[in-house]
Amino acid sequence: MAPRKGRPGYMIRIITFGYHASLSGPTIHCDALTNSLHRLRTPDVCMLLLEQRDNKLAQCLGGMLEEVGQRFSAELMSDLVCVNDLVNHVEQYRGKMLRPTLLLVSAMGTADTIDLGPLREPAIITATVCEMVHMATLVHDDILDEAAMRRRGQTVNRLRGNETAVMLGDYLISHAYHLCSSLGRADISRAVAAATNTVCEGELLQLSNRQNWRLDERTYYEIIRRKTAALCGLCCELPTLIAHDTGQRNGDEQLGKALFGYGEKLGIAFQIVDDLLDLAGDEPTVGKSLGRDLAKGKLTLPLIRYLSEADELQSRAMLELLDQCSEAAGSDETAPQHLYAQVVRRLQDSDAMGQARDTASRLIDDASCLIERALPEGLARQTLLAMAQAVVTRRF
């Protein structure tokens, strides 16, 4: 794929256990950042391995992500062996590191320097805080979905039961706010809390619409805007809030709005692709249990599009399959597999999945336009543009 007109050339490589995909353009090497991420004890390489030709951005970003990993571990350390064992296990969930990366690269754009200057310390703390909040939502999501696998390993609920998983999620959330309070910035603490509230509201809205086979697109977008995109948007906006007290020239409200909009659109696109992968991804590559949306009665964009465009006979047949998937999952977790295959085949015979991917691509185009208008040409802008494009090409 050639770089789009009017945008800087780039290449971004996505790597996970033998899978490689690249977008064309000037080569961006990945070794330094890969090594840093391996030291974070992640079971797979970060989705976004970015390094410019001069190696500076990768060195800075890799070092900062390593610091995020160190802060994460230090904050969660307990004098109880049983707690540390659980923390060590959940640290394996840190695969893509998308949210800390978004925050740190946005901070580079806000500070107008890749070493962040006075933004470095608060940016690393808030990146760690946001990753903890995200990890807590993953632990709780796995309970709600009765998922068995994440990051190619067993989930906490599968290993230790729902009670332990609930408490571990709470432990992550409480430590996130404990660490955030160390900044002494009530505005940042309230922003993180507000985003977390929005995530919880999105999950509750989704739960209230389980097995609602007439879910409309508007409600679907509201669900994913809240449960996924709100935190991504916050990660991009936070550096501008931090900058208000550090004298950085880019700590202004307009830049904050643009960065939030970029992150929110990227987050919505990310969730659409996630929903596509749940239907038609490769489980070893994706690294988590697939087909759980159908099993739990969650209607996602490809199915919403299919049902809105299908004729009466096709719609009735699909609704019967959805009911069977949900009912079978209630008694036997593996029983619906043959039903999932029928659902996916019907989707593939239509244009529904292509339409959903096109929607994600349009959101990414909109997000990229926001960045192009908000940030001057430079490494931070190029990296944010490349990250956006990687969202729609990822396979995990």
Question: Would you write up a description of this structure?
Answer:
It is a single chain. The protein is mostly helical and 396 residues long. The chain is built from 17 helices and four strands. The strands form two sheets. A two-stranded antiparallel ribbon has the order 1-2.
The total of helices stands at: 17
Total E-strand runs:
4
What is the distance, rounded to the nearest whole angstrom, between the alpha carbons of the first and last residues? 20 Å
The H-and-E topology, N to C, reads as EEHHHHHEEHHHHHHHHHHHH
Poorly predicted residue ranges: 1-54
- Helix content estimate: 55-70%
Trace the largest sheet across and list its strands.
1-2
Strand percentage, roughly? under 5%
Structural class computed from helices and strand pairing = mainly alpha
Rg estimate, integer Å: 21 Å
Mean pLDDT reading: 84
The best one-word shape is globular
Major beta sheet summary: 2 strands, antiparallel
What are the salient characteristics of this protein?
mainly alpha, two-stranded antiparallel sheet, 17 helices, disordered N terminus
Summarize the structure.
The chain is mainly α and 396 residues long.
Question: What is the secondary structure topology, with strand pairs?
Answer:
Layout lengths: L12 E4 L2 E4 L8 H8 L17 H21 L4 H10 L7 H14 L8 H26 L3 E2 L2 E2 L1 H5 L1 H20 L4 H23 L8 H27 L9 H28 L2 H4 L5 H4 L5 H9 L2 H20 L5 H13 L2 H23 L4 H15 L3
Antiparallel strand pairs: 1-2, 3-4
Helix pairs in contact: 1-2, 2-4, 2-5, 4-5, 4-9, 4-17, 5-7, 5-9, 8-9, 9-10, 10-16, 13-16, 14-15, 16-17
